[in-house]
Write a structure and sequence with these properties.
Blueprint lengths: L1 E6 L11 H21 L4 E4 L12 H9 L6 E4 L2 E2 L5 H14 L4 E6 L6 H4 L7 H17 L2 E4 L7 E5 L11 E5 L3 H10 L3 E5 L8 H13 L9 E9 L3 H23 L6 H7 L7 E3 L1 H15 L3 E5 L7 H24 L10
Parallel strand pairs: 1-2, 1-12, 2-3, 3-5, 4-5, 5-8, 8-9, 9-10, 10-11, 10-12
Antiparallel strand pairs: 6-7
Helix pairs in contact: 1-2, 1-11, 2-3, 3-5, 6-7, 10-11
Amino acid sequence: MELGLYTFADVNPDPALNKGAEAARRLKNLIEEIELADQVGLDVFGLGEHHRPEYAASAPAVALAAAAAKTKNIRLSSAVTVLSSDDPVRVFQQFATLDLISNGRAEIMAGRGSFIESFPLFGYNLEDYDQLFEEKLDLLLAIRESEQVSWAGDLRAPIQGRGVYPRPLQDPLPIWIAVGGTPQSVARAGALGLPMALAIIGGEPRRFAPLIDLYREAARRAGQDAARLKTSINVHGFVADTTEAAADQFYGPQAEVMNRIGRERGWGPTSRAHFDQSRGSHGALFVGAPEVVAEKIVAHHKLFRNDRFLLQMAIGTMPHEQIMHGIELYGTKVAPLVRKALTGESEGAKATA
């Protein structure tokens, strides 16, 4: 199983701050985080696309290209690319370029997005939310399949025999589908035979296990090769020297983010008691000392049989030094424990997309 990280490159949204300086600071720190993740042997780093004042990564491929020049082995993925409001030709070109710069380490994690700001920003109608994603995914896959593309849809101008360049080093360029728990999205990923990343940021993870079964069954019914199916579990969590330190450091920033989003979406406010319950053995938060987090990752691998596990540690306004120490512990303490438990070797067999 691959072990990695993802982040949205959160910044402080305080309007009194200089937004350019705040974003510059965060992106500098982001590159350092990706460098360290590579150095300590983690497998994947994902960067999410957002178009809001509290996030600095509206162009993940650009930031990942900067990280590609300073890393050697770690795979570099979007997490996610909001494909519905982007152009598949440009998405493919950007990540093919990233693939060339990184010597074949780029991936696209495509999704519909958990926020809606990009739709009016780029001139799309929210009423077309589902159809936009279906059409654009179809076009993206067509571009991946063939250098010369002929394609027609209802919501984008057709392409008649045009070439899309550059071509990536990887053939095919890995494309994952990110889902948030909608059965239709899960079944589509399976029917297409594409790797699927499942975000679990609340509730009990075991309740999501039927979605993994649905994914595999949809792929079987569509005649997809089971050997090509990959799944990832993407969660919130943090690692520190002790479980108490991890909980104390992570609670404030994570709760602030979840409460801010909750006010927009009508969720009730979180609390320390709810947080502490969620980091228990059956909750969705992977927070604790290295041994505690490793044990929980292994337990959930038995449940999901997932090929990848991504942890969102850099969330909200967490201090950079705490994030860096968490990454170090994740790579040097947690990862060897997980790999040994799953393979008998501390390095372990690394999955491929």
